[in-house]
Amino acid sequence: MAAESIQSVLTRCLKESGLEEPIRRYRTLQDWPAIVGNTIAAVTRPERISNGKLFVRVESDAWRNELIFYKKEILEKINRTLDSAITELILL
Predict the structure, then answer these.
(1) Domain boundary assignment for the chain
(2) pLDDT for 59-87, tens place per residue?
(3) Which homologous superfamily does the CATH classification assign to the domain defined by 20-91?
């Protein structure tokens, strides 16, 4: 009989307790600079995730307009990096 790895036990416990998704949301907010890079992270601040939507505060209209072109790429990177289910990026 093979012993179950610590990672698989933790993953199972998180799923069973309903904490897996809140932890993924938290990681998205915490890992924002690593996901989007320092330049974009310097002019944005992720605020919250609600119903699969990530709300991000942008420091200026010019940056908001620029980031509109990168929304799809940012979403793909978030979901690929964190195995998350963010469906929409809302720029505030």
Answers:
(1) 20-91
(2) 999 999 999 999 999 999 888 877 777 88
(3) DnaA, N-terminal domain (3.30.300.180)
Residues in CB range of 41: below 8 A, 6 or more apart: 32, 33
β-sheet with 44-50: strand ranges across:
44-50, 53-58, 88-91
Sequence-ordered list of residues with C-beta below 8 angstroms from that of 29, at least 6 positions apart, any chain: 46, 48, 49
Say how far apart CA 71 and CA 48 lie, in whole Å. 16
pTM of the model: 0.73
Closest CA to 52 of 91, 18, 84, 92: 84
- Residue 57 to residue 40: CA distance in whole angstroms: 11
